[in-house]
Amino acid sequence: MGILVAIEGLDGAGKRTIVGRIHDAATARGARTTTFTFPRYGESITADLASEALHGEHGDLPDSVYGMAVMFALDRAAAGPALQAACGDHDLVLCDRYVASNAAYSAARLGEPIGASPVVDWVTGLEFGRFRLPTPDHQLLLGVPPEVAMTRASGRAATDADRPVDHYERDADLQSAVYRAYSDLAATGWMSPWSHAADDAAVAAVIDLLR
Prior knowledge:
211 residues; alpha/beta; Rossmann fold; 5-stranded parallel β-sheet; 5 strands; globular
């Protein structure tokens, strides 16, 4: 079985770039490597419905923390068989966002501390228990603070019409709370060992797992 690594962080933290760099570095070492990106916008109806909700559609759906979490969880559940197969066929499987994103955003929206969060327990039971998604072998939190990530996300939206800033990304207080939630998940080793790094150190942290 290959190593499953989840790359986590705020929108604008540079997850896509880091995933690409890790993929290239691992492939150069001869590792069979593949990637998944969640949510699977444009591929999954539940992911698209969630995106539409975050851009003002579907009534009060975005107001429901559990409702939105279910949408994102169903997207991953639908990809579960492909993810399991990839872990069997590759040395390294990279996920640009994974279950921790649901845990961090849900806890932050409800103001629940990670160490005593009913919604984190619920996400864990739903995605890893009921949906039987594979547990990551390692999780990497990109150490990019909220103010930097939000500036990047806004700049990206200004130049890429396909990536507009959504309701979550516009909320500075929420982004700060999510960053704290991610940091607490990493500090407690939620579901697997974590690394907390950025840029070259982030790439090296994952490549070291292949040794």
